[in-house]
Amino acid sequence: MIKTEIPTMKNHINGEWVDSSSKEVEAVPNPANGTIIAYVPLSGKGDVDLAVKAAAAVYPKWAEVPVPNRTRLLYQYLHLLKEEKENLAQIITEENGKTLKDARGEVQRGIEVVELATSTPNLMMGDALPSIAEGIDGSIWRYPLGVVAGISPFNFPMMVPLWMFPLAIACGNTFILKVSERTPILAGRLVELFYDAGFPKGVLNLVHGGKDVVNRLLDHPEIRAISFVGSEPVAKHVYQTGTAHGKRVQALAGAKNHAVITSSCHLEKTVQGVIGAAFGSSGERCMACSVVAVVEDIADEFMNLLVAETKKLTVGDGRFEEHFVGPLIRDTHKSRVLQYIASGVSEGAHLIVDGRDTETTEDGYYVGATIFDNVTSDMKIWQDEIFAPVLSVVRVKTFEDGIALTNQSKFANGAVIYTSSGKEAQIFREKIDAGMIGVNVNVPAPMAFFSFAGNKSSFYGDLGTNGKDGVQFYTRKKVVTERWF
């Protein structure tokens, strides 16, 4: 039997793969079976400094490259990503655990963000107004910031990094990427394809690691902006620390997304939508449906159908098409989720589908689809982001009560209403406090040409990612007032 050596990931600095200066590594298991597939170095301050030095050295020349020429390279990158779609999806499933169907969807969403970035010549256009006074013209011009950085999470190892560096680089910045140490492999392939597309060395740099890398990115004087996606406590730290060091920061944080279900909904389609939103990607996404607020007059009918359909879901290795729910990312996260399920039971919620009973022959980190009924807002399972296939159902008298319940949450990322009433949809849109809203749309994540950001404790910053917000975040304005004699 031939033994294959388990690789240790390297950093990518100035166009080259380089060993981390740190000898400390962390194992990367396949969540579906616990097999170690790689080791990732926990780099330190010196590794970040080398990456920033490389990015800063190439920045002046890169910023002078005409915007159309930058985007022509992005078109080549886009072509390479499309050629590798299936391979990229396979890597995501291996290191993240999500099903191939979900991984393929993530790859497509990442490609769509790069498609947005190829529109940078239009998106970076300024404004002008002649004759603002006698013989005087006014205009606004957009310029890159310099060296910028991104810190991305484990749950979308392709899509979220592509929210960050393609648009930032197309705007003329150079970039330092720090991805989750739980899912480092896909990022390496993204960087390889980036340089295969012909970009100059040092424009994109990858540094693996944990909190030491994060904190150095936050306090390094040459980094002008930080984009972050992750948990709420870390997002708050990133925002407060980064801004204290004079940086622009966009920090996308946690969520407790609600779906309000009215008596006018299409019941069968609503149930299927909730199942996909709550249990797809094993619930490990910031746009997952975590709470259903269903009006009392259809609650029993809704619950009967929801439970019956949920019990049909299969759990297992995401490489196999028949599995709907894959593993959680780590055994430690599984333990945390099991504690939340026990908490829901002890606080008096009715556990009607118990994911702890999942039957699988795999050795991975599995928790099946879980449903609580009769949940109340004083319970931890309603209050906290669990990040798992755990759904809480709250029965409300009216859909307005559902709106009020949703607005009690400290999070405000996304919210959905299922209805056939235009009036109910209009009221929901006006009264709900969430950054992204769906009307009969199961996961209201906007397309890349719209901005992505929540409200309240789901977002720290002023400008979201993607769309016009993304271009504004990665550029600075110069306002010119000119007269010629």
Overview in brief:
The chain is α/β, with parallel strands linked by helices. It is built from 16 helices and 22 strands.
Model description:
This protein has 485 residues and is an alpha/beta fold. Helices cover 40% and strands 22% of the residues. It is built from 16 helices and 22 strands. The protein has helices spanning 45-64, 67-83, 85-96, 100-117, 120-123, 159-170, 185-196, 211-219, 232-244, 267-279, 296-310, 331-346, 380-383, 399-408, 422-431, 467-473; strands at residues 11-13, 16-18, 25-29, 36-41, 127-133, 136-144, 147-151, 174-178, 204-206, 223-229, 248-252, 257-261, 289-295, 350-353, 370-373, 390-396, 411-412, 414-418, 436-439, 455-456, 459-460, 475-483. A seven-stranded mixed sheet has the order 14-15-16-13-12-18-19, with helices on both faces. It has a six-stranded mixed sheet with strand order 9-8-7-10-11-21, with helices on both faces. The radius of gyration is 23 Å and the shape is globular.
Residue windows where pLDDT falls under 50 for at least 5 positions: none
Could you say which overall geometry the principal axes of the C-alpha atoms support?
globular
**Beta-sheet strand percentage?**
15-25%
- Rg from Cα: 23 Å
Q: Report, as a whole number of angstroms, the end-to-end distance.
A: 83 Å
Number of helices: 16
Kindly report the spatial arrangement of strands forming the biggest sheet: 14-15-16-13-12-18-19
Largest sheet: 7 strands, mixed
State the secondary-structure class: alpha/beta
Helix content: 25-40%
Summed over residues and divided by their number, the pLDDT gives a mean of 96
Tally the beta strands: 22
